[in-house]
Specification:
Blueprint lengths: L2 H27 L4 H27 L8 E3 L8 E7 L7 H10 L5 E4 L1 H6 L1 H9 L3 E4 L12 H17 L18 H8 L3 E3 L15 H11 L5 E4 L7 H16 L3 E3 L1 H5 L3
Parallel strand pairs: 1-5, 2-3, 2-6, 2-7, 3-4
Length: 270
């Protein structure tokens, strides 16, 4: 069942019928109303455009989701922050990332791509063995918009199996690839009591600072609040600046009195 398509088509049909319901009486009453008819047509097109824009905003929203439990940050007075890592993992960088976390006695939440994690089994097992939290980021990293709930199920459940096969026993949170979801993905996650994890800080997606490790660390230190969820990308060769920023971010947050915890610990009031 493709709820995204059904919802989109339903809105278009409703708006079209509403427009026709007003259009026909106007046309039948007098030719002089032609301008009004044109205006109505323009208004209808604007309404459709606004609905499309609203759907786009909802699809990309960090803190709004129509169904299920979604979190982008947590309200707390305790100085805790959750560092989260998307994509990967990669055997080329896992040791360095874990070493940085150990230095600051930090735990992270790693949202892994199922197909990559399957190929990089030793890296995934290293994350599990070190006590990190493992989350689900879809099997193929495909956008979960205008897809059926069956397609969502395959993406989520295939990745769950890879994570469990690596020995991970904890709860598996979910983060949609590219942060995009509309109705089908939230509906599936709601049915299965799964938490959708977004973020409130994403330093390496800000073009002005994405190539500057120190600037990224300063940005996080200045903008983090108790309960913040920080998103980083450290796994690919092109993300060397993010890897270099990681120890700087850890040091900056630690110096400000923050503990670095997993998302589940954050949700449980750590």
């Amino acid at each position: 069942m493709n709820l995204d398509v059904i919802a989109g088509l339903s809105l278009v049909v409703i708006l079209t019928l509403a427009g026709l319901a007003v259009w026909r009486p106007l046309v039948g009453r007098a030719p002089r109303l032609g301008r009004r008819v044109v205006c109505l047509g323009v208004a209808l097109l604007v309404a459709v455009a606004l609905v499309g824009f609203g759907a786009y905003r909802l699809m990309n929203a960090r803190s709004v989701q129509l169904l299920g439990h979604e979190v982008a940050s947590v309200t707390t007075d305790t100085k805790v922050v959750a560092l989260t890592f998307d994509d990967g993992p990669s055997g080329a960088y896992v040791d360095a990332v874990l070493a940085d976390l150990r230095t600051y006695r930090a735990r992270g939440t790693f949202f892994v791509v199922g197909s990559t994690a399957e190929q990089e089994g030793p890296a995934l097992r290293a994350l599990v063995a070190s006590g990190q939290e493992i989350g689900n980021h879809g099997f193929s990293h495909a956008r979960l918009v205008f897809v059926s709930t069956g397609a969502v199920a395959r993406e989520v459940e295939s990745t769950d199996r890879v994570i469990r096969a690596a020995g991970y026993l904890g709860p598996i949170l979910f983060r949609p690839p590219f942060g995009k979801r509309l109705l089908s993905a939230p509906y599936y996650l709601w049915q299965h009591d799964r938490t959708t994890v977004m973020w409130d800080l994403e330093p390496d997606s800000i073009r002005a600072i994405a190539d500057d490790p120190r600037a990224m660390a300063e940005y996080v230190a200045e903008n983090a609040n108790p309960g913040s969820i920080v998103l980083l990308h450290v796994w690919s060769r092109s993300r060397s600046a993010s890897r270099a920023a990681l120890p700087l971010i850890l040091r900056a947050l630690t110096n400000k009195g923050y503990r670095l915890v997993t998302v589940t610990e954050l949700l449980n009031g750590a």
